[in-house]
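Changelog-adjacent note: as of this version, every example in the card shows the full chain rather than a window. The one below runs 460 residues end to end.
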Amino acid sequence: MTTPIPQPPGIPLLGNLTDVDPSNTWVSLQKLWEKYGEIFKITVLGQQIVFVGSVALCEEICDEKRFRKYVGGPIVEIRKAVHASLFTAFANEPIWDVHHRILAPKMTPDAVAETFTDVRNITSELIAKWRDLGAGSTISPIDELNRLDMETTTQCFYGRRLNNLSGPASPMIAAMDGATSEAIKRPTRPKVLNWLMHSSKFSRDCATMRKYAAECLSHRKSNPTDRKDLLWTMMNAKDPETGKTMDETQIIDEIVTMPIGSSTAPCAIASAIYYLLKSPSSGDIIAKARDEISTVVGDSNAELTHAHLDNLPYCRGIVRETLRLSAAAPGFNIEPLPSTTGPVQLAGGKYTVPAKQTLIIVLHGVNRDPAVFPEPEKFEPERMMGERFTNLPEGAKKWFGNGKRVCYGRAYAEMWLLVVMVGLLRSVDFEMTDKTYKLKQDGWFNIRPVGFKVKVSPRK
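Full-length structure tokens:
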């Protein structure tokens, strides 16, 4: 006997349109998960969508023998900016395989180690900026870290400094926010309304993003270099199977795609600052991390090296626990394989869904599954270390997506998160400006703290 998948009561014709706020979709889904649990569904403008929020079901639908990434909804909309990129290509588009074979070798752990020095040094520049502001100056972590992310991504992969840590932020940041926001909202509106009222700004934001990419490409052409970085690879490498290369339009597509993906990283670090300050064990966690850094790296004058990173398990535990609780990359889309016939059984037949069903993993729920994470709201880095981490089900570690279409920048993101986290812990103290603040979030292809500000001072 199957169990019906729960669904909020709907409105004729509109379905559950009012149950999901298009201006804050992921927080709406968090609330639905809190009410309905491991699986629920909604209907919007006649389309049924099923959401999964438990580790077991997440792991089941990540089985690539039965399911694959679904490219639809907002991901299709953002193709206006990036066309068929590694993030947005449909499963039947051979361009994905070509680009992946060309670019993936530059994103292995060994390859991204070449970017370590740039990440470390630019992080130090941001910290120096804060130091110059004076002790106790107020900052918005997400705004500052967005600048850091854009600066490091552009330098590490495209060999270009934006110099946006101070002064006006790169226009790319606002354009990404605007375009991804609109991409999330467009599937919830009638197409005619999108065309009449929302296309102009969407087009401008997409054009700004592509202008950023074109400028990176033009800068490289005007400033030849021996750097064999990601942009060099886009411009020069051939697919080892077909011999194909990437044309300029495709290069611009992939240049734009990388910052969209990396934008989850500053959301995670901003969230980490919040969790570190609000945890009842805040003092102990920060002290343990700083002791580990001092033991491995040395005093404040010692230089962090890439070799140190593998010897900082507690700091890495802080990063992983932040990825769990923040769900900075809030979810991803799945569908049954096209060859699937008949209803699809889930949880051993407890639930069934149609063969042509979109499923969305809500990582806020998956990452709080009490069957896997006792005291799921507790910030506990130790559960992300050693055997405790190794023994977690694979469905509890899907922060970067899954399988063939997992985030291809994962190794870089993991390194970036750890380097930045260590840099902040070593160098600065944070203090909540509003000690009554409770985490509020919004976001589009990422999710971030809203209205969160801190006082920053050189570490005592």
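Structural remarks: The two ends are 63 Å apart (CA to CA).
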